[in-house]
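User: Show me a protein chain along with its predicted structure.
Assistant: Here is one chain, sequence first, then structure tokens.
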Amino acid sequence: MVLELLRGLSLIGWGLLIGFLGLMLVANVFGAVDEQARKMSQSSFRRWVEGRQVSPEEIKQRPGFVLGRYIAGIAFALVGLAAVDGGVVYLITQLS
């Protein structure tokens, strides 16, 4: 009984964590997107491909960066929501 309860609660906890990571990507919580854009602008591969230094603001305005950020963020949020729902259903079925 206790093991099933712990499994359900851990699934809910992992779902909340993954959902929060998705929220961080979509809403730019804690400046995570700004930091990623800064790292991308300073990479040696970016300078080699484009032949110039690119500012983080320019990278954040590119359609691929914006689209990828929203797709990844929404996907993480949906997987987290599914895990939380699965944990709740698991708890309900095990405790009844």
